[in-house]
């Protein structure tokens, strides 16, 4: 079968199977199924894992995964539970965190160092997990580049469409480039992340605190947070929007207690560069 | 200073005339601290050159961008804060530099090859070469006193926890010093060459332990419910400095402490502004360099130690609140100080796990929190928390006896704490208390269908499950077994005297404090 004969078939399958699929906002157009998000993330994840210096320290992994697990388990939105989240720590001073579609989340040591508390790290993870649950990357791919998707479909019989470069062997830069969200998506990830933190018993006010710290970093050492701020546009309006939403959150029944009240500080110290 | 006058005016009574004690206490001379490097990016981890004229540190500065990132590089500065000089210009982070005791070389951590490796260079930062070059993490180096070896903390790329390692300064003879599942970090080589202080999380929080290089044994140095980290020895080996922060607090609450080399008589150096960490003794032992976090990042500071702490000789326990005399000192919540000889021969503490009847001469200090909860520190470094079973204490000065209501007390520091009883194990309680105890009796464990009595001589460590029904015993030699506890209450004799019949649910762990090398 030639590429040109296969393309319309696959494209039709995608269009038929993908529209209106599960997610936090099911009526946003998304040609990818939930499984499609997961497989795309797994494929990108292989590339990312090969390229980035991952830190496989038991206590550090346990800390980050423990926070993520607590967030998922307390999630008020069923959409969060559709995805198998994985959490990896990247040994780089760059202040950044990012999520791949379908669940893989990467947190740089630079941002772990920057956080003062477990709640602040939870704010970062909650924000990234919300990008996953809202399926922002595949939404963008869907609306961005139908032509490219058609091309992919034309050259492949793989059941999940991936962008052409990814299919050919994704490059890290390309993968990270995909994760540049619109302001609307960032605002949504903030809003969802706040609710996620609140439900898990973390202090949602720490999200505003961590944004302010990022703002300070942007002023003092701009290159360190360049990638984060380019993919997560950060300004005073956004911080204020987060602060405004704090009063709208439902009261959490229990006290705000960190999962590992001392482990965060301990783990941070083991890797302290300062 | 004005605080001294204020305290002096508030003294209720004192035995100064009787005992010749210096007055007043804490505020007479807390030392003085000032910044050496501040306001230019973030600077940290100071290390003295052996002549005491300069410091090595690392700094991350906005005006030094490389490949889009402001990296950490090594710098030096004169001891008075003048003459900053940049030593390295690597495009990746270079940090945690330490000057060799002979002053000829520096060892530091570099990420140039993709992971944290140790590098070695001459004292000017020239001719840098990797000392370790593998994909794992090697960090936190410390020199042996003869400048021939380097100890460090490391874990492999495949994962795991930090262990201590040692390597010759020419890259040969790499050897692992610890093999536990816990993290052993921040080694500090003692000037006698025979031991290394380090930080471990084996007890669930950070404590200071010491490793003997003669026989591989490890023993507690400073163990408390708080976190202790970043130990540093004075050049003459008689003093230990470290940072400490509350168990439930943040490392940004860290303050500096100084103690005798055996960990006794820890004194908080409150002239160093918090957060303060990473102390480094100047060669003369009278000054500490440290890092303090200012508004714009970490800064390098120096603290000239209070005169009585800078003097050679053991730190006395009364100095814990800077009383400085052979009297018992009570600091009240309103700031007043009362001194005299404590009349009570025993202090009874109601701890969550039982009643502790402590002989007063074994108690070094009692700190009271805002709710009146007492934290007792014993002469051997043990800590116990609970409610003091007394409404008032009595201090005698000459013919006069002053009654002090316990609810008015902020801190009590006693003059000559001494604990001589047998230890051998450390009981780490679920509430965070840490007690030196004699070896327990045999522990009875049901494993599968069998009941096994485990003799204490075979026990390396016992970890108790939350409800106390189950335990995991690690045996000397490394084997372990887990099962249901069938011993009932566990009888323990504290080195400080009292005996306790403990419900296993109140225990977190029993740890042998001196063990053979693996």
Pick out the low-confidence regions of chain B: 1-28, 317-325
Topology order of chain A in helix (H) and strand (E) letters: HHHEEEHHHHHHHHHHH
Main sheet: strands, sense, barrel of chain A: 3 strands, mixed
What overall form of chain A do the CA principal axes indicate? globular
Choose one word for the global shape of chain B: globular
The stretches of 5 or more residues of chain A where confidence is low (pLDDT under 50) are 1-21, 150-170
Q: What about the largest sheet of chain B?
A: 10 strands, antiparallel
Approximate strand percentage of chain B = over 45%
Strand order of the largest sheet of chain A: 1-3-2
Oligomer: heterodimer
Distance between termini of chain A? 60 Å
Number of helices of chain A: 14
Write up what this structure looks like:
The complex is a heterodimer of chains A (274) and B (518). Chain A has 14 helices and three strands. Chain A is mainly alpha-helical and 274 residues long. Mean pLDDT of chain A is 77; it is low at 1-21 and 150-170. Chain B has 518 residues and is mainly β. Chain B has three helices and 44 strands. The longest helix of chain B is centred in the first third of the chain and has 9 residues, at 2-10.
What's this entry about, in short?
The complex is a heterodimer of chains A (274) and B (518). By secondary structure, chain A is mainly α.
